[in-house]
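Thread amino acids onto this structure.
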């Protein structure tokens, strides 16, 4: 079970439930993958709805890695996410929001 109080988000990929979390290592991977000026700029893109499918995939992959998933990136790209692209975007946005909020600010959904 994902624990929102620790920044975790659950994603169902290929029928299997995974816990995602943006650890420091996952954030560093994400920053390198996207060549972002800053992770705050990336979070702002999600807040304003200016994110791309590539952004969503990169955030989810980093979150899956932070949660302990060792699958290949192409498994994410080819896999079916329960709820489709909108659920994937929502999960990515929640991961970023939880990574950059204080524990007392996190509201479970």
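Threaded sequence (109 positions):
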């Amino acid at each position: 079970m994902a624990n929102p109080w620790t920044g975790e988000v659950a994603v169902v990929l290929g029928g299997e439930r995974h816990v995602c979390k943006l650890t420091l290592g996952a954030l560093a991977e994400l920053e390198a993958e996207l060549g972002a000026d800053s992770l705050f700029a990336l979070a702002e893109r999600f807040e304003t709805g200016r994110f791309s499918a590539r952004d969503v995939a990169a955030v989810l992959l980093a979150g899956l890695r932070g949660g302990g998933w060792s699958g290949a990136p192409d498994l994410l790209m080819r896999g079916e996410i329960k709820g489709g692209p909108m659920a994937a975007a929502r999960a990515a946005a929640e991961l970023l929001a939880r990574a950059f909020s204080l524990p007392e600010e996190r509201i479970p959904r």
